[in-house]
Specification:
Helix content of chain A: under 10%
Mean pLDDT of chain B: 88
Structural class of chain A: mainly beta
Distance between the termini of chain A: 43 Å
Strand content of chain B: 35-45%
Shape of chain A: elongated
Number of helices of chain A: 1
Oligomer: heterodimer
Number of strands of chain B: 10
Number of strands of chain A: 8
Low-confidence stretches of chain B: none
Strand content of chain A: over 45%
Largest sheet of chain B: 6 strands, antiparallel
Structural class of chain B: mainly beta
Chain lengths: 118, 167
């Protein structure tokens, strides 16, 4: 029981995105590739996560998804698909999700996790 | 009678062994990086023109924890603030300084070199997470108001950015 209380604070505010190394696949839409990602929100202080696709030099790459900002309830998972143009396949290097902090009267830590195409 | 019972028993055992099958257990170990907010920071106000998270000046250092399940697969980048997320209207410039250091590790042997091997560019500190496990990083952020003027009264908040990038 003591261990549980010790561990609880560490897992109370966590952000997770998988897979670490996604792969592009052909989509049913002509000229577009798709990959599926999953986010898990263990941050009770965050409700929304913004996603983006970048090249090697962190320039944004156009992509399509259901939303650019996903609502992820506390302790819930969200799976989402990202589509890019086939011609951007070799440019796309990172998919990132970034926490959207509420404008509260306290200092906080924003978290961003980036998966990479190899 | 006894002989017959033994034969029946042996046949039964044989039957069981004939139908025994291995039950496969499969698993997929997926690498992942988890960023956890261990301690949100608090600015202390040691004098009228300085806000700092340094513990010696009444602040609380923000602590962020990285959990990685695969060795040598991620970089941790932690950036201390360069602006306030919330503050009263400020008419003069604010000078920002910040630093990040390893606070604690789950594997002292493997992660002992993290601090010496870190790279710093601007307000950002990057660590190469070469070992799987947990690492806690703590940051110090200091804001000094221009010309040593007093900060106007009000609430000041700023955000540390913790990034985990797959290699």
């Amino acid at each position: 029981m003591t261990l549980l209380f010790l561990l609880t604070p560490f897992f109370a505010f966590a952000h997770e995105m998988t897979p670490t190394y996604p792969k592009w696949q052909l989509s049913y839409l002509d000229g577009l590739l798709v990959t599926e990602m999953e986010m898990f929100n263990k941050r009770s202080d965050v409700d929304y996560y913004e996603i983006a696709v970048f090249d090697e030099k962190w320039n944004p790459i156009p992509f399509v998804s259901s939303y650019k900002v996903y609502k992820v309830e506390y302790l819930s998972r969200v799976k989402f698909e990202i589509y890019i143009r086939e011609r951007d396949r070799l440019r796309a290097e990172y998919i990132c999700s970034k926490s959207k902090l509420r404008n509260e009267d306290k200092t906080s830590i924003s978290s961003m996790i980036c998966s990479r195409f190899k | 009678m006894l002989k017959r019972a033994i034969i029946v028993g042996l046949v039964s055992l044989g039957a069981f062994s004939a139908y025994a099958e291995d039950v496969p257990i499969t698993g997929n170990v997926q690498s992942r990086c988890i960023i956890s907010v261990d301690t949100p920071g608090v600015y202390g106000n040691p004098n009228a023109y300085t806000l700092t998270t340094a513990a010696a000046d009444g602040g609380v250092q923000p602590i962020v924890r990285y959990d990685v399940t695969l060795a040598d697969a991620y970089y941790a980048q932690i950036t201390t603030p360069t602006s306030f997320a919330q503050s009263p209207s400020l008419s003069d410039t604010v000078t920002w300084t910040g630093s990040t250091e390893v606070s604690s590790v789950s594997d002292a042997t493997g992660m002992g070199s993290y601090e010496t091997n870190k790279t710093t560019f601007g307000q950002t500190t990057q660590y190469d997470l070469t070992v799987s496990g947990s690492t806690w990083f703590k940051s110090t952020s200091t804001a000094t108001y221009g010309g040593n003027k007093a900060f106007p009264g009000g609430t000041y908040t700023a955000n540390v950015e913790a990034v985990c990038i797959a290699k």
